[in-house]
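Q: What would this complex look like in 3D?
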Amino acid sequence: MFITFEGPEGSGKSTQLRMLAARLRESGRAVFETAEPGGTPIGLQIRRVLLDAANTDLKPTTELLLMFAARAQNVEQWILPALGRGEVVLCDRFTDSTLVYQGSARGMGAEVVYEVDRIACRGLVPDLTLVIDIDVETGLARAHRRSVRTQDMETRMEQQDLSFHRKVREAYRRLAADELQRVKLIDGSRPEPAVAADVWAEVQGLVKQSKEAGP
Ligand code: TMP
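A: Here is my prediction, written as structure tokens for the whole assembly.
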């Protein structure tokens, strides 16, 4: 099972990923946790270039290709091998982020994203994608508080203007409406346990489906 978490800034998706990983492990499953961009040591170096607030000159095409460069490394080095060992792979962001941030909010279009995805991810599509939805102002305020607290300098994307982040949220909501089977929209404005209960219900739905589909 390959499950991805998505959402605008400050949606709480990373916390939800960790909670789901713990619950799956308690139920006896082997879980592999990773993130994009930056899941591998090489990806982490690429992440620094992508998110360094000082890199204001980074061009949209460079941004898109670096997102996929980090992902290609992760797919080959960690994700495909973990899936091959039968582990549940949980990934914090994947190609849907590129579709939403670069394809929609940056205006590069979906076609170019799918084109590079074919090379970088070699047909790997999540079985389930959980979009933790949050209104833009609340999410950005949360993300900003966290960056200040942790003295995080990797805030280049967070610092995009409000209209950029509104496009991100809208694109996620459209994606969930277009891909009802794979992409589930979850209201992230509620307390963490309530969000986690919805996440768990969606994952149980996927487990049931795969049992019905047989080996
Ligand atoms: P994170 O804070 O969830 O780790 O995500 C890093 C930032 O990078 C976040 O602002 C979303 C952005 N991003 C993209 O613009 N495109 C992508 O493909 C990915 C994976 C992340």
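A: To summarize the key features: Residues 15 and 104 are 26 Å apart (CA to CA). The longest strand covers residues 128-133.
Q: Very helpful, thank you.
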